[in-house]
Design brief:
The complex is a heterodimer of chains A (89) and B (174). By secondary structure, chain A is mainly α. Helix content of chain A is 88%, strand content 0%. In chain A, α1 packs antiparallel against α2, α1 runs parallel beside α3 and α2 packs antiparallel against α3. Chain B is mainly alpha-helical and 174 residues long. In chain B, 66% of the residues lie in helices and 7% in strands. The longest helix of chain B has 35 residues.
């Protein structure tokens, strides 16, 4: 995986863990993250309308990775209670 | 990038010494890369200079570990803003995979062979991540799942690109 993907993952996971430590609503943060991803996916779909092969290939790459993030966000939502038990004292 | 904000967040939980901050950072945020003590103290120094933490007391003895750091209102506001902001989703339309494919085609090299090799490397890495998931550590499993989903995303893109190679070659060759 390339640097920016790992950096984004680490930033997202840090926010989730820190939210749980501070008894903040980690689920709300993940909802916001999901909304930001969906917005970006709509922009990439618009790029694909442009009918330019290179633009389409790059947009597809972005779309697949945003979908991968969304799957991970859903799995993280399902794991929040378990994770909270680990990070709270 | 997020080291200062993470340390601030740990201080939002409770005032702390540099040593305890490093321990908690390494346990929950380090991802196998421990934060050097030097970086802990230089970061705390900058946070203090910028008014985001204050040093509440200096205990008897010598050295930086005698200092106890307390977050300020300014620091707490910054943590709050950070935690309520989404991470920028895929800000850049760029990928090394794509650059290699285009350059291979331009140079009349076998782009399909490169993609086959990349696919094999991804599959190997996916098997390694599956092994890590057997380890039963939740955070490790979360990191492995993230990797697996993104490797699958690349694999989907690789398949689509194989199907588009001829069309792409027509565009990039002169």
């Amino acid at each position: 995986m390339s640097g920016p993907i790992i950096e984004a993952r680490d930033a997202a996971l840090s926010k989730v863990v820190l939210s749980l430590m501070l008894d903040r609503p980690a689920g709300e943060y993940l909802d916001m993250q999901r909304a930001a991803h969906l917005k970006r996916m709509r922009e990439l779909h618009d790029i694909k309308e442009g009918n330019n092969l290179i633009g389409t290939m790059l947009a597809d790459h972005g779309l697949f990775h945003l979908e991968a993030d969304l799957r991970w966000i859903e799995l993280t939502v399902a794991r929040l209670d378990h994770l909270a038990g680990l990070v709270r004292r | 990038m997020s080291v200062p904000l993470t340390l601030l967040g740990l201080l939002e939980r409770e005032p702390s010494h540099g040593y305890d901050l490093k321990r908690d950072y390494d346990t929950f945020f380090g991802r196998g890369r421990p934060l050097p003590f030097g970086q802990v103290y230089s970061t705390l120094g900058r946070l203090a200079r910028d008014g985001k933490v204050v040093i509440s007391e200096v205990e008897a003895g010598e050295g930086p570990d005698r200092k106890r750091y307390v977050i300020t209102e300014l620091g707490a506001t910054e943590v709050d803003a950070w935690l309520t902001q989404p991470v920028e989703p895929e800000p850049h339309l760029q990928t090394v995979l794509f650059s290699k494919v285009v350059l291979s085609l331009m140079l009349d090299r076998p782009a399909g062979e490169y993609l086959d090799m990349q696919r094999a490397a991804h599959l190997k890495r996916m098997r390694e991540l599956q092994e890590i998931k057997r380890g039963n550590d939740l955070i490790e499993a979360m990191l492995a799942d993230h990797g697996l989903f993104h490797l699958e995303a690349d694999l989907r893109w690789i398949e689509l690109t194989v199907a588009r190679l001829d069309h792409l070659a027509g565009l990039v060759r002169r």
